[in-house]
Amino acid sequence: MSAASTEDVVPITVEFSGGLEMLFSNERKHKLSIAAKDESGLNSNVAFLVRYLCDNLMKDPRKDLFVLDGTVCVVPEHVLSPALTIQRRPGILVLINDADWELEGEDKYEIQKGDNILFVSTLHGG
Amino acid sequence: MAPSICAVCQTNRALILRPKNHQKLCKPCFISVFEAEIHHTITTNSLFHRGERIAVGASGGKDSTVLASVLKTLNERYDYGVELILLSIDEGIKGYRDDSLETVKRNAKQYGMPLTILGYDELYGWTMDQVVEQVGKKGNCTYCGVFRRQALDRGAAKLGVRHVVTGHNADDVAETVLMNLLRGDLPRLSRTTSIVTSTPSIVPSSPETTSHTNIKRSKPLKYAYEKEIVLYAHHKNLDYFSTECLYSPEAFRGSARALIKNLERVRPSAILDVVRSGEDMAKLVPGGNDNCGNGCGGQATLVEEEEGGCGSSNGRTTGGEMASMEQQLVQSEAAAEGGLEVEITTAASKSPNPPDSDVIPLVTGKKGKKLKGPPHGTRKQPARQTMGQCARCGYLSSQDICKACVLLEGLNKNRPKNSIEVTYDIPEEASLNGNTVVNGVQQLSLGPD
Ligand SMILES: [Zn+2]
Ligand SMILES: [Zn+2]
């Protein structure tokens, strides 16, 4: 953890599937580097990543298909209190290095160098 | 967080948190537990019998892909002795099915299963594109849903297959239970919770004659969480395709789905609890299927499929709630003995609406405090009625002519003269007068929305 936090950026791989890729330029796999620290100087976690994806990677205007009620994208970041953590839209699974994010601390999981974070929609298709 | 250890093997790192019981499992243990549970569903409900040919309703989506994969695995592992084939429906929307049908074609190779793709044009004489051209964008979802509801049964009958399995999962069933509960439609709730259903369909036995048979439908994934289906597909690296419905989901179904997903977040066991509650309520519905869960695999509940809407050809609904199918069909004891098709026809010809039936739907129940007499909704008739078969196509229908045939009648009547002839055969003597058609079409907008 300390290794990652001493650097400015954390290189990671973010993947979208189950139809979510359609919201991200139809690309399944994205190699990104995100800031190692969030706005408050804390280690960047999954909540921060979701905000980042919404603001920077997602070109599709239908933000509500990715985050609940579009809260993240509508409300300016500085208004977001730490308590107002981002809720993933129901029906999207998050796998952190293939593990269910619920086993990893959900959105409080601190992103590590080289992490693979997969967002899968369970809602589409039969 | 310290890595969790698998609850089963106590060795590997846990990657999966099971929604139904919070068990933490590693990947190999999860896969074997998931498969074992499907096997359990199949055996305890006697879904299959040796020598049976079974069509998997395949859309290329996650549910049907997982279903095909798991059934292949289990058929080999436990020697069910069934023959599995893939059946896909092409609505004929240009470009829409291309990717999913390519996925199904790959699946056919991957699983070594023969694949048949049947188009709406082959089944009905109309592609959806042609329907849209005729009726416009608005309302075509109705056609798509009504046609889809019958497509797998018609397709199976065409192939001489008597059993279709679909990828309906626990989330789908819970959603349907909630929707029917919120509508106060317990009879339909009872029908749709059944793991096995049966619909009469026409079977072309020779060019001149046709005979009716029951197409059995079952849902081996009925107790499988959608989340686990997605995780299974992911961890087994299954090749599936996700597509968005072209049309926005019908609001009521969308809300029911959101409610289910939110409940799951707070209380993960809620989904299976709703499914089980649905089954228990079904037992309370007079004339409902008894869902004995053991040894009555052959005693399928007769049901008009209610699934509809767009986005999936395996019968699973991703949106677009279809008009409700309103009549309750009660299995007679004779039907339980196996004479289902005979029973339906005789019942239909006897008394179409027994006034003093001993079977009284809950909605109009004697003890109902508010509900006295017939149900309030004039178009909604959850009351018990005998099901007959469509005079034209032989499909199970509460009307003389099923909804698909009514829609086709309207379409064919207005078909531009220069266009190709309808391949779908309509006997002349069964032609409708204008009123009936109007009524039929109105009934298509059934349901509380
Ligand atoms: Zn294990
Ligand atoms: Zn018909």
From TrEMBL, chain A:
<dbReference type="GO" id="GO:0005829">
    <property type="term" value="C:cytosol"/>
</dbReference>
<comment type="function">
    <text>Acts as a sulfur carrier required for 2-thiolation of mcm(5)S(2)U at tRNA wobble positions of cytosolic tRNA(Lys), tRNA(Glu) and tRNA(Gln). Serves as sulfur donor in tRNA 2-thiolation reaction by being thiocarboxylated (-COSH) at its C-terminus by the MOCS3 homolog UBA4. The sulfur is then transferred to tRNA to form 2-thiolation of mcm(5)S(2)U. Prior mcm(5) tRNA modification by the elongator complex is required for 2-thiolation. Also acts as a ubiquitin-like protein (UBL) that is covalently conjugated via an isopeptide bond to lysine residues of target proteins such as AHP1.</text>
</comment>
<keyword id="KW-0963">Cytoplasm</keyword>
<keyword id="KW-0833">Ubl conjugation pathway</keyword>
<keyword id="KW-1017">Isopeptide bond</keyword>
<dbReference type="GO" id="GO:0032447">
    <property type="term" value="P:protein urmylation"/>
</dbReference>
<dbReference type="InterPro" id="IPR016155">
    <property type="entry name" value="Mopterin_synth/thiamin_S_b"/>
</dbReference>
<comment type="pathway">
    <text>tRNA modification; 5-methoxycarbonylmethyl-2-thiouridine-tRNA biosynthesis.</text>
</comment>
<feature type="modified residue" description="1-thioglycine">
    <location>
        <position position="126"/>
    </location>
</feature>
<dbReference type="GO" id="GO:0034227">
    <property type="term" value="P:tRNA thio-modification"/>
</dbReference>
<protein>
    <recommendedName>
        <fullName>Ubiquitin-related modifier 1</fullName>
    </recommendedName>
</protein>
<dbReference type="Pfam" id="PF09138">
    <property type="entry name" value="Urm1"/>
</dbReference>
<keyword id="KW-0819">tRNA processing</keyword>
<dbReference type="InterPro" id="IPR012675">
    <property type="entry name" value="Beta-grasp_dom_sf"/>
</dbReference>
<dbReference type="GO" id="GO:0002098">
    <property type="term" value="P:tRNA wobble uridine modification"/>
</dbReference>
<feature type="cross-link" description="Glycyl lysine isopeptide (Gly-Lys) (interchain with K-? in acceptor proteins)">
    <location>
        <position position="126"/>
    </location>
</feature>
<dbReference type="InterPro" id="IPR015221">
    <property type="entry name" value="Urm1"/>
</dbReference>
<comment type="similarity">
    <text>Belongs to the URM1 family.</text>
</comment>
From TrEMBL, chain B:
<dbReference type="GO" id="GO:0005739">
    <property type="term" value="C:mitochondrion"/>
</dbReference>
<feature type="region of interest" description="Disordered">
    <location>
        <begin position="346"/>
        <end position="383"/>
    </location>
</feature>
<feature type="compositionally biased region" description="Basic residues">
    <location>
        <begin position="366"/>
        <end position="382"/>
    </location>
</feature>
<dbReference type="InterPro" id="IPR014729">
    <property type="entry name" value="Rossmann-like_a/b/a_fold"/>
</dbReference>
<keyword id="KW-0820">tRNA-binding</keyword>
<dbReference type="GO" id="GO:0000049">
    <property type="term" value="F:tRNA binding"/>
</dbReference>
<dbReference type="Pfam" id="PF01171">
    <property type="entry name" value="ATP_bind_3"/>
</dbReference>
<dbReference type="GO" id="GO:0016779">
    <property type="term" value="F:nucleotidyltransferase activity"/>
</dbReference>
<comment type="similarity">
    <text>Belongs to the TtcA family. CTU1/NCS6/ATPBD3 subfamily.</text>
</comment>
<dbReference type="GO" id="GO:0032447">
    <property type="term" value="P:protein urmylation"/>
</dbReference>
<keyword id="KW-0808">Transferase</keyword>
<dbReference type="InterPro" id="IPR000541">
    <property type="entry name" value="Ncs6/Tuc1/Ctu1"/>
</dbReference>
<keyword id="KW-0963">Cytoplasm</keyword>
<feature type="domain" description="Cytoplasmic tRNA 2-thiolation protein 1 C-terminal">
    <location>
        <begin position="388"/>
        <end position="417"/>
    </location>
</feature>
<dbReference type="Pfam" id="PF16503">
    <property type="entry name" value="zn-ribbon_14"/>
</dbReference>
<dbReference type="InterPro" id="IPR056369">
    <property type="entry name" value="CTU1-like_ATP-bd"/>
</dbReference>
<dbReference type="GO" id="GO:0016787">
    <property type="term" value="F:hydrolase activity"/>
</dbReference>
<keyword id="KW-0819">tRNA processing</keyword>
<dbReference type="GO" id="GO:0002143">
    <property type="term" value="P:tRNA wobble position uridine thiolation"/>
</dbReference>
<comment type="pathway">
    <text>tRNA modification; 5-methoxycarbonylmethyl-2-thiouridine-tRNA biosynthesis.</text>
</comment>
<comment type="function">
    <text>Plays a central role in 2-thiolation of mcm(5)S(2)U at tRNA wobble positions of tRNA(Lys), tRNA(Glu) and tRNA(Gln). Directly binds tRNAs and probably acts by catalyzing adenylation of tRNAs, an intermediate required for 2-thiolation. It is unclear whether it acts as a sulfurtransferase that transfers sulfur from thiocarboxylated URM1 onto the uridine of tRNAs at wobble position. Prior mcm(5) tRNA modification by the elongator complex is required for 2-thiolation. May also be involved in protein urmylation.</text>
</comment>
<dbReference type="InterPro" id="IPR011063">
    <property type="entry name" value="TilS/TtcA_N"/>
</dbReference>
